[in-house]
Amino acid sequence: MGILSILLCVPLVGVLVLQFFPKRKFSAHRVIANLTTFVTLILTIYLYFPFQTGQEMQFVEKVSWFTFGSFEPISYSIGLDGLSLPLLMLTTLVSFIGSIASIYIKERTKQYYSLFLLLEVGTIGVFLATNLVLFFFFFELTLITMFFLIGIWGYSKKERAAYQFLIYNGLGSAFLLIGIVGIYVYFGSVDYDSLMKVIPISSFNPFTWTLLTLLLVAFAIKLPIFPFHRWMLLVHVQAPPSVVMIHAGILLKMGAYGMLRFGVSLFPDYMEYISTLLAVFGLINLLYGAILAFAQQELKSVLAYSSISHMGIILLGIAAANQVGLQGAVLQSISHGLLSALFFFLVGALYERTKSTQLENLGGLAKSMPIYSGILMVASLGLLGLPGLSGFVSEFFSLLGLFERHPIYASVGTLGLILAAVYTLRALLSVSFGEQKKSISHQDIAWKEWLPMFFLVVTIVGIGVYPDLISSTLNHTLETIVSDWRG
Amino acid sequence: MKQMAMDLSPEWILLVGIALILIGEILLRENSSRFILGLIAGLTVTASGLFVILQGKEVISLFSDSYVSDPLIRSIKLLLIVGTLLVVILSFSEKLAAKGEYYLLLLSALLGAMTLVSAAELVMLFVSLELLSLSAYVLVGMHQERLASSEAAWKYVVYGGASSAFLLYGMSFFYGLTGTTSLTEMSGNLAVAFTNNNEMLLYLGFFLILVGIGFKIAAVPFHMWAPDIYQGAPTTITTFLAVVSKIAGFAFMLRFLGSLFGTQGIQSVLHGVVIPALLVLSILSMIVGNVIALKQFHLKRMLAYSSIGHAGYMIIAIITILLGGESVAYSSLYYYFVAYLLASTGTFAILQVVAQDKSPDRRVLSGLHKRSPLLAFCLSVFLLSLAGIPFTAGFIGKLTILVGAFGNSLFWVAGIMLLTTVISYYYYFRLIRQMYWQEDEKAEKERVSWSAGFVIALTLIGTFLFGIMPQILLQGIGSWFM
């Protein structure tokens, strides 16, 4: 059993161990979950060092899994490359912080943490899988566990949120499955590396277009892209904050990862061909999200629309169809993952104290909760793309790439950055500053809360100051992808 | 003679078992336990299964080709046997089984199903089908004191009788056209009959038979009986109908259509009439079954509609077999059978435990996760398998069907299959929601009898095993039966 399989099994072991504890031992459940996610984090950090830049898939494990008649066997194959490594690290980091942030969950903790760890298996597996069928297995695992996590522990409209999540993403999965089966039957394989050789380049045919469209729609629902975004708003607002950390931090990035992995690297020339279309959708997301975020009266909704806006930037980076743009897209995935994890940790902590996230009920927290407000400030600055924080580099790279291909769209895109500053600062001002609405002063966050938050802040600053941390591993993989585009 | 006895051994054993149960019923006192009869039934079915396995890859043909048995047929027989065995075990804790004729009828129904699978001649087909159906009519009405049960039996007799009439009428056309009742001879003669301007008669016969088959497998628009009968029948018998009787119906369909219109048949009829008719049947079943299931409050009715939807998926597998395009076709149908058998039997077993004698609506599941977390978990797994979620056998079943459909360029059907699957998420997950989100004042743990527990454990293991390591079964089908 290789190290990647061990990584996949660690959370499973955690789930098993959890089953031996009685229902009421809340603190034991927390300790086990935190430990498990911590071990996965350590394992991925440990993977970072022996990882060799300039090579294809590494730590590869491949075992024959099953065969359909005369088709090529489907194997259990996992591996890491420059594209999946940063996202994997994001996953384990956010999962760890997310499991710490789950202190606000106070009932049915055994079930909660079991599902949480299963969700982690799913998210890790999605980034490790190197064949489409295995990818789909893990993709669906996240769907099922999220359904429970939203539905049982969410806020008042949790059922609607859970069902919308299920039906939208179920449809997405259906599209994805059709696409996968189509690829399997017509190109005879589901392995990434053999598909990259098999799928013909620059011979556009309607069938391949259909397959690509199916895949793109599936990931567009996950990302989400403008007309498919409704479910995601509900989930952001109704799911418990610790679950939204995973949702906004990792699950949305699966959409971006899917587009890069299956769109750009399997069908490079097709993606280049539709880059204008992608750019248009990206702009719509960017501006629509930003404008609506400005109009929201509730903190979680502001963040939800800001997520839509930021996913637009990822799309713009992909639309750029060059190395800088793709680099921006991946960096934006990481950066937004970290920022939204931080934000929803903050939201959880806030809700715990104020029992409200309506902007009109908040205000003046800087006085009573200085540490909290300080971290919120850093997070907001990251979200609006202040240089020196991770948000800036990613947006800069995405737009830089886009300028090369579609200068006009890119200039419109910069508008989105200004809007981001407007809505973020508006939200920040009404939470931290101004008049305190209630006479009760809230207790500031404890070390258990600010320490993990601080950890995230350090990472955000780290990437902002030294983006090569990620780019160095990423670039080589992107180079091989981009080499299909005009040399 | 000795050879014939060996060749027919699985059926002989069932007959012996039936006789033993009859004698036992006479010898036993009226109020003494019938457990021993159940044990005899279980052992008989097991022995019959062993003999099916022992026959291996032999190809048997008896009574001038009216009874055939080859590995493919044997694989289906094995499924029927396993399904019946699970039903027999479930029945140990069923009060109805206090009557001796319960097991007797169960075995005779199985005997009918087994000969139905082996039959290669119209009369034999019909006789077997009637043996299966008549036994099933009585079994459905076993709850004599319960109105719903009697009503269900009555409806089943009426619907079933009508469909048998259609079937028989259709068969008479085929006999008239070809002058033979043997399916092997018929496929040759049919081509001659077809060229003699008798197409209309052929089509008429085909559609009449399709009505009969459609009824047996509960495909839309011949599905009306299923919800009422599933609801009224005792849960163990519902399981038998949903699993064994349905699989036998599909085997009949495959045998009849395969030998007359399969790859050696008349291609213009196959592509012009048979496949389109089946496509319509399949699409209607998928849509109607899954959409109406959304509105069902009664659990057994919901499962009835869901099984109608599953029939739609299985018809796609049948179509791919008839088109003969892909080598995966047969194993995809078989895989789906297995997945469906495991998940359905498990679901019904849990329903039997949870609902006891009450007629189960969705509320009986409320708060199950608190009362019996293990049961709630098992039921969730079965429902996920029925919904076709990865890591369960149901997903691999769906995947194989999809691969077959794509291989034969049946894109639209594959698309509809996946869309209706998404619709089905809604009602399967609603039950899961009921178990995990809805609280209930009832606090006592569910009492699980050992027999139900055994069946649930077995089906759970199977669902996971075939979902995570599909190779075991896929290879099994490949090497053992072909």
Describe the protein.
The complex is a heterodimer of chains A (487) and B (482). Chain A has 487 residues and is mainly α. Chain A has helices at 3-19, 26-48, 84-100, 109-128, 132-153, 158-187, 192-198, 206-222, 230-238, 241-264, 268-273, 275-295, 299-320, 323-354, 365-368, 370-384, 390-405, 407-432, 447-465, 468-482, and strands at residues 58-66, 74-80. Chain A has a domain at 274-487. The model of chain B has no long low-confidence stretch (mean pLDDT 86). Chain B starts with a helix and ends with a helix. In chain B, helix 11 packs parallel to helix 13. Chain B has one domain (2-481). Classes of the chains: A mainly alpha (487), B mainly alpha (482).
The tally of helices of chain B reads 20
Please tell me the overall pLDDT of chain B: 86
Give me the strand/helix succession of chain A: HHEEHHHHHHHHHHHHHHHHHH
- Measured as a percent range, the helix fraction of chain B is over 70%
Distance between the termini of chain A: 39 Å
DSSP strand content of chain A: under 5%
Taken as a percent bin, the fraction of beta residues of chain B is under 5%
Number of strands of chain A: 2
- Contiguous runs where pLDDT drops below 50 for at least 5 residues of chain A: none
The main sheet of chain B orders its strands as 1-2
Radius of gyration of chain B (Å) = 22 Å
Estimate the global geometry of chain B from the Cα principal axes.
globular
GO biological process, one term (chain A): electron transport coupled proton transport
Protein name (chain A): NADH-quinone oxidoreductase subunit M
Subcellular location (chain A): Cell membrane; Membrane
Membrane topology (chain A): Multi-pass membrane protein
